[in-house]
Amino acid sequence: MADITAIHDKFVKKLLADTQVAADYFKTALPPHIAGKLDFSTLYRRPGNYVSKALEQTFSDIVYTCELKDRKEKVEISLLLEHKSAPDTYTPVQIGGYLFSAYRQQLLQRKLLTPVIPVLLYHGKKRWKYRTLDHLFDHLDPDLLVFLPKYEYIYHSLRDLSDKEIRAIENGFLIAALLLLKHAFDKPGLKSRLAEIFSIGLAQGSNAQQVSLVIYGFELVDLPEEQVKDILETLPSDIKDKVMSTYDLLVEKGRKEERARAQKLIEQERHKAQQKSYDIVSNLLASGKFTILEIAGFAAVTEDFVRKVSADLTEKK
Question: What counts of helices (H) and strands (E) characterise the chain?
Fold first, then answer.
C-alpha cells in the first residue's frame, strides 16, 4: 500500500476542492460565534497556497477566502492538514510559522493584510490536547512571556466527535468522508461500517467525489477481493453498481501497477546479471590469456558482447 499519510492527504484535498463541501465543512469545524460572522455564499478557493518550501514537509494547506456578513472586509480561512497518528507537542510552533508565512506572502503580493484562521483537522488514534505556544514555556519567567507571539487556531478533532454528531451534518457526502477519516486507524471497526458509510456518501456528490470516496475506503481497509465482494453484496442495488464499477477500475489499476513493478524488477535483475557478465569478461580480457571465442564460452555470453566490452576497455585507456 502507498504511504498512508499521502493517502489521507490526497483524499482530504479532493474532498475540500469542492466549494460546497468546503463550506459545509467550515460550518461544522468553526465555532458558531465565528461561523455566524461569515457569508459562506462568498466562499471561494484561492489558487496556490501559503506554505513555504520549508513547511511543505509538515503541512499541506487549502486556502479559502470568505467575506464577513454585512461588511466589505474579507477573512481568509486556511485549512491545515495534519495526519500524524500521535500528537505533536510542537504543533503551535509549526502553525506560527505557517501564519507568518501567510502574512509575508500577503505583503509580497501587495495586499491589505487580512486575518487567517488556521483550522487543524486531526483524526489520529491518540488524544491530542489543544495547546497554544505559551504552554511550551511552562517554566518561563512570567515577565518574559510577553515576548511570545499570541495566536489561536481551531482544533477540529474527529476523534472527539461522536458518529451521531458527524451524522447531524446536512451534506451526506461530507458525513461519509468524515466518518472514513475518523475511523481510518480502526481497520476492524471501519470494515464493519464501510457498507453503511458508502450508502450515505454515494447517495450524494459528483461521480469524481464518489470514486474518491470508494477508493479511499478500500485503501484504508485493504481487504482481500473476496471480503470486498461480501461488503458489496450488502449494498442497495443502485449504490452497489456504482461501487462495483469503481472497484473494478481500482482492481485493474492495481494489476497494472503490479505488472509495472514486476517488469521493473525483471529489468533490475537483468541489469545486475549483465553487469556481472561484464565484470567477468573484463577480467578475462585483462588477463590476456584467452581468445574472444573462449571468453564467450566461459562467461556464457555472445562473441559480440565480448567485443563490445573489449571496445569499452580500449576506449577507457
Answer: 12, 5
Q: Which of 107, 138, 160 is the last residue of a domain?
A: 160
Q: Answer yes or no: is pLDDT of 24 > 90.
A: yes
Q: What is the identity of the amino acid at 127?
A: R
pTM, full prediction: 0.71
Residue 191 lies in a domain: no
- Give the Cα-Cα-Cα angle 241, 242, 248 (nearest 5 degrees): 85
What is the dihedral sign for C-alpha 200, 203, 204, 210?
Answer: positive
Q: Which three cell numbers stand for residue 54?
A: 520549508
Whether 195 and 214 have beta carbons less than 8 Å apart is answered as no
Cα→Cα distances 159→162, 205, 208, 274, Å: 8, 24, 27, 54
262 occurs within a structural domain: no
Q: Residue 181 domain-assigned?
A: no
Given this model, what pLDDT does residue 30 score? 93
Cβ atoms 243, 235 nearer than 8 A: yes
Of the ranges 80-84, 139-143, 296-300, the best mean pLDDT one:
139-143
Q: How far apart are CA 175 and CA 197, in angstroms?
A: 8
Query: CA 24 to CA 119: how far, in whole Å?
Result: 14
**Set of cell numbers at residue 88:** 505533536
Helix (H) or strand (E) holding 117: strand 116-122
- What confidence score (pLDDT) does residue 218 get? 83
Compute the mean pLDDT over every residue in the chain, rounded to the nearest whole number.
80
DSSP string, 277-291: HHHHHHHHHHHT-S-
Parent domain of 287? 270-316
The residue with cell 497556497 is 49
Q: For residue 65, is it within any domain? A: yes
Q: Quick one: which H or E segment has residue 311? A: helix 303-316
For the chain, the domain total comes to: 2
Within 78-224, residue ranges assigned H as helices are 91-108, 163-167, 172-182, 187-201, 207-221
Contact by Cβ (8 Å): 121, 82 = yes
Which residues share a beta bridge with 156? 121
pLDDT of 251 higher than 50: yes
